[in-house]
Amino acid sequence: MDFLNALVVLTNFVIVPGLAYGAQLAIGALGVTLIYGILRFSNFAHGDTMAFGTVATILFTWIFQGWGLSFGPLPTALLALPFGIGLTALFLLGTDRVVYRFYRQQKAKPVILVIVSLGVMFIMNGLTRVFLSLGAYAFAPERERDTRGTDDVNFFDGERFIITARNFKEMTGLDEGLAIKSTQGITLITAIIVVALLFWFLNKTRTGKSMRAFSDNEDLALLSGINPERVVMVTWLIVAALTTTAGVLYGLDKSFKAFTFFQLLLPIFAAAIVGGLGSPLGAIAGGFVVAFAEVAITYPLKKVLGYLLPESLAPDSLVQLISTDYKFAISFVILIIVLLFKPTGLFKGQSV
Amino acid sequence: MTHSMRAPLLFVLVAGLIIFTGFWKGPNVALTIVNYGLISAIMALGVNLQWGFAGLFNVGIMGFVALGGLASVLISMPPVKEAWSAGGLQIIFALLIGAATVVGAVMAQKRLKGRAKTLATLAILIVGFFVFRSIFDAGVQAVEAINPAATGYLGGLNFVGANWFSIIGWPVGGLLAAGAAWLIGKTALGLRSDYLAIATLGIAEIILAVLKNEDWLSRGVKNVVGLPRPVPYETDLQKDPSFVESAANFGLDPVLASTLYAKLLYAGLFTIFLVIILWMAQKALNSPWGRMMRAIRDNEVAAEAMGKDVTARHLQIFILGSAICGIAGAMITTLDSQLTPTSYQPLRFTFLIWVMVIVGGSGNNFGAVLGGFLIWWLWVMVEELGLILMGGLTFGMAEGSALKALLIDSAAHMRLLTMGLILLLVLRFSPRGLVPEK
Q: What's the whole-model pTM score?
């Protein structure tokens, strides 16, 4: 019984949140890895693209709520997601047209593109915040009307839990409860759909195959008549879908805050590099590695050990290996370990 | 306009902008811009060393600046004696154990082979970690319990209580930053260029997390305030009859005169440091070492074929550049006379410096200095201009309308937008900057 209780506690506080967070990171890292594979630079604007996509979705959510639309027990944001993706895709294609294409034609060094992406990040950062406050003024329900660009926004509606802790206790008769938030369920299901779609696209369709060919060997791909501009366009479209989905899932699960999304850049990059830059499978694996490390190492193990160990050995302190304030340090340490021992990542990426 | 006249003219232009600000907003505002401009110029020189000379992409400038700030506190604040006797030595001892653990693990990695290597490394790390935590946590608790409202930390090393100690903190800030840079450079240099960027991004976040959470070291988010300053305090000057008299001779009000005097002294100190660093950077640029660096930057493969150790040279210049950022960071903390970890924002302390270097002209030291002043002036002024613009836009609107408040509020975000736009425009249309490399 004690063992089961310990298992439930661990599932409740580590495994379920870790799975959800891992899925969010994985979708984010897929975007980074795709851009790296096709456009060959690390996109520092990725976190802010996620923020932009989320804000776009939040605005549509507010509009739909204004019309009285709802998605039953599911959050309205899911209904708004395709529209958010559409807006983000337009924005990304515009950025590519105005900014990145020039450097591509110049065959600029990757590091120049990274700096350019920094500039794009600045602009997106400002735009996102202005959009959010203007959008809130125009569309938001009464209580959200004063939202400012830097505020925390909670845009979740619908049913909160799939299983509540109390229901679980009644069902199983255990002392410990297991609560599964509906956002965690939604995250996992969406992630599976997104990943399945992406892999189907990359492996089965003609465009997907040409993208992989382009990523493997650009010159050869060009020789065989692949249109590079089309490949790049499709990449941005997919990236728009991935970033917006990742951002919305993270925002539903926690909340939206522009600066937090910028900070997600580090775990997302860590995930992509741990998996091997340029490898989609690696990005998914990396996402879960980073997420589980972060959640498990910052979780106080006192309760779990209390169940598992005999009473005389039960710990007094929290047995928290590292305080949650240092969760960024964990993704960083994982990153450093991978750089030191396996610079190409778990699944051989392109990078050395 | 001939090439040689371009840089001096631009400097005159920037000086004109600042003087204009002085007439518009008052001399205090202008002098504040000058002081922060001087510090920004030093930071830009450090980044120019890394990017302009060697093509290294450092996105963690904020971290090195924050370390400099920490050094400023550690040197200039008086020590908290009770805290030292309560748990100071214990913390130091724990840190030594932590360092020994890491060294031991590295030794095990180097000396042993096969499975023994992995097992020994893991064992050393795990045992070391728990020993470290048990000693460290007790020490930290003891230190943080001592008068947490006023101190609750170990304080600094200013045993004599001298105000000029803060100047010693500046080079020490450089040393701390150099140490962190060595750690990062050792792991991330020699790999792809983007890896250094990501690693520096990470280290900056970690340094900041340490400053925010290790209360025994930096008081965390409770901030350290009232750092001793190397220049006289305004209130003391106003009480000094001879100062009041000489101020009157200039026809100045003593309050205004004292604020200007203190700021001018700071400006003098910063200028000395800037000139020394600029002189050294110029010497380095024109030395065989500088030529080698540019050769490596322009073609790593060729330089390596000529027998240059590219990774070692990169490490060298990366440490030097970061150290300069650390010095500037210590200066900023002294100038603010407080350490507020929450005020370190990557946009302000990392990306803004990048804009300075690229707009000024990467690879040219004078360009970096020019960029430092110009972009700092813009950074201060853009918000003003944004407010004026929004004021114009909202002129017809009713007082207290929500939309008006909203538009005026969004002027704050104009800074980010403008800086990004400037960066992109310069990169696109004048990638070599205002004062190009020769």
A: 0.90
